[in-house]
Amino acid sequence: MKQQTRLVYSTEKGRIKVQGSKDIEQYGDGVARINYESKGRKGNGVTTISGLYTEDINLKTLTKNLKKNCGSGGSIKNNIVEIQGDHRVKVREYLKQKGYPVL
Hints:
This protein is of the alpha+beta class. It is built from two helices and six strands, in the order ββββαββα. The strands form two sheets. A four-stranded antiparallel beta sheet has the order 3-4-6-5, with helices on one face. The longest helix has 12 residues. It is globular. It starts with 6 loop residues before the first strand and ends in a 6-residue tail after the last helix.
């Protein structure tokens, strides 16, 4: 039986998804978006980096290096890197130095 595919537009991440393909929507576009969030965290803020998760980039290694560079803890949740504290400048400089596109 021939598998039918059709384009489905989603505003969730601004990407076009091909129905029937393997989880294209789980990947970002490779452009780092750096934000600071403290809402819903009991006053403790984190620097978040989203949009970087692609097939080429290993988030675990990147997160480990970012934590070491910033001198703080962090984690990966839903393909979003979270670094504890306000380290937007350090993260931006580090990612630019490593050649990642940053917004």
